[in-house]
Design a protein that fits this description.
Elements: H1 2-19, H2 46-50, H3 70-77, H4 96-108, E1 122-123, E2 144-148, H5 159-171, H6 173-176, E3 178-183, E4 186-189, E5 197-199, E6 209-214, H7 216-219, H8 224-227, E7 265-266, E8 275-276, E9 279-280, E10 282-284, E11 294-297, E12 313-317, E13 326-330, E14 345-351, E15 363-369
Length: 372
C-alpha cells in the first residue's frame, strides 16, 4: 500500500514538472488552458495534495464567497478573452496598460480602494514565481494588478466595496481585456466553460484585495477601453454608459506625463505618469496649495528610488503636509537649483519616515513647499 501511495505521488509530481506548472495548475477542466488557479499572492497548499487529502480548501469555505449578480454573470458569460500566461522572463516593471488601468481604478473608485496600503491601494509589478510553484506569476510580466479593499469585521471581505469593482471589471472584461479575476474565494475567467466563476481553492481567500490580470493587447493599450472608444448602448436602449472612460486623474483630455519625476510640479495624477517597482507616481495636493499646484511623489517607507538626471530623493512623513504615511520628496541639488526650482519650494530638515522598513533613522534637507 505504501509503495502504491509513493508511486502515485511521484507520478503526480513528475507530471507537474514536465508541464512546468505547480501540481494544482493542471488543466483539470478540459478547457485547453492552464487553470490559472495559482496566480495569486500566497502559497499553495501542496502538502494537502501530496498527502492525498484532496482539495486545498474546506468545503465550507465555498459556501460564502463573492457571488456575481445574475445580470453580471450573464454578461460575463458572453466575454471571450483568451488566457495568456506569464512566460519565463520578468519584464522589468508594470506594463503601460496595467499602469493606466490601476490609475483609472484608483481615480474612479476612490472610496472603495484601501489607499492606506502601499501604492495607495494599487500594486502591480513583482518579479517572482507563483507562490508554491515553478512558473512565473503574471505579476512578473507587469500584467497583474492587486486592488486592495478595506476588510470588514474580523478580516472578512468587504463585499459592499469590493464587489463594486469586481462586478464592473467583469462587465467590461472584453472592452478592457480582463482575462481573470480572483476576489473573495471566487475565481472568474473570461474564457472557458459556463459559468465562468467557481470557488477559488488557493490558501489565501483574497479577502483584502482583488487580483486582476489583463491580456497582452490590454497591456499594450490596444483594446477599446484604452483607445477611448465609446461603450455600446445597453440592451434596453439606455446609452448612459456610452461616454469614453475618464482619464486617470479625472481629466479626459489631459495627457499623461511619463517623463515627470519626484518633486516636479503637478495638478493631477496625470502629470506624474511614471511607474517604478515601488509603485505609481501621483500628485501630492494634501497641503491644499492656493495655486492648485502640487508635486509628484511616491508612497514610501524608509527609501525612495532615484533617477539619473533628477535630484536625489528622500522618504519623509507626510503629516507635516496634511497627508499620512510616507512620501518621496527631492533633496536640494543642482538639478533643482537647490530647491529654487520648482518655484515656491525651500529646503527644510526632515526626519526619515522609517515605517516598517527597518531603515536607519536619520534626517536630511529636503525640498518642501514654502512655509512648511
Amino acid at each position: 500500500m505504501r509503495r502504491h501511495t509513493l508511486f502515485a505521488l511521484a507520478a503526480a509530481l513528475s507530471l507537474a514538472a514536465c508541464a512546468d506548472v505547480p501540481v494544482d495548475d493542471l488543466d483539470l477542466e478540459g478547457t485547453g488552458e492552464p487553470s490559472a488557479e495559482a496566480e495569486h499572492d500566497d502559497d499553495e497548499d501542496l502538502e494537502a495534495l501530496s498527502s492525498g487529502e484532496g482539495e486545498f480548501v474546506e468545503k465550507a469555505a465555498c459556501g460564502s464567497r463573492w457571488s456575481l449578480p445574475s445580470s453580471v454573470s450573464r454578461e460575463g458569460n458572453g466575454m471571450s478573452v483568451p488566457y495568456e500566461g506569464a512566460g519565463r522572463r520578468c519584464q522589468g516593471g508594470p506594463t503601460e496598460g496595467a499602469d493606466m488601468l490601476g490609475r483609472y481604478l484608483r481615480s474612479n473608485f476612490p472610496d472603495v480602494i484601501d489607499q492606506s496600503v502601499a501604492g495607495r491601494g494599487i500594486q502591480i509589478y513583482a518579479c517572482r514565481n507563483i507562490r508554491g510553484g515553478s512558473g512565473l506569476s503574471v505579476h512578473a510580466t507587469g500584467r497583474a494588478i492587486d486592488v486592495f479593499i478595506p476588510t470588514g469585521r474580523g478580516g472578512a471581505a468587504n463585499n459592499a466595496k469590493g464587489d463594486v469593482i469586481a462586478n464592473w471589471l467583469v462587465e467590461n472584461a472584453d472592452r478592457i481585456g480582463i482575462q481573470m479575476l480572483i476576489w473573495d474565494r471566487t475565481i472568474w475567467r473570461a474564457s472557458g466553460g459556463i459559468p465562468r466563476d467557481r470557488c477559488y481553492q488557493g490558501t489565501h481567500p483574497h479577502n483584502d484585495h482583488i487580483h486582476v490580470e489583463i491580456s497582452d493587447d490590454a497591456a499594450n493599450m490596444n483594446t477599446p477601453f484604452f483607445r477611448g472608444e465609446p461603450e455600446p448602448p445597453t440592451s434596453g436602449g439606455d446609452d448612459s454608459r456610452a461616454d469614453s472612460p475618464v482619464a486617470p486623474g479625472g481629466d479626459r483630455d489631459a495627457p499623461i506625463n511619463r517623463d515627470a519625476w519626484v518633486g516636479d510640479l503637478c495638478r493631477s495624477d496625470n502629470d506624474c505618469g511614471f511607474s517604478t517597482d515601488d509603485g505609481l507616481g501621483r500628485c501630492f495636493l494634501s497641503h491644499q496649495p492656493a495655486s492648485g499646484l502640487g508635486f509628484c511623489t511616491l508612497d514610501c517607507a524608509g527609501y525612495c528610488p532615484d533617477r539619473t538626471g533628477k535630484a536625489t530623493t528622500f522618504c519623509v512623513g507626510a503629516s507635516r503636509l496634511g497627508g499620512s504615511g510616507g512620501i518621496c520628496v527631492s533633496k536640494p541639488g543642482s538639478e533643482n537649483a537647490w530647491c529654487e526650482s520648482p518655484t515656491g519650494f525651500t529646503a527644510v530638515e526632515m526626519n526619515r519616515h522609517v515605517g516598517r522598513s527597518g531603515a536607519r533613522a536619520t534626517s536630511a534637507d529636503v525640498c518642501l513647499p514654502t512655509g512648511r
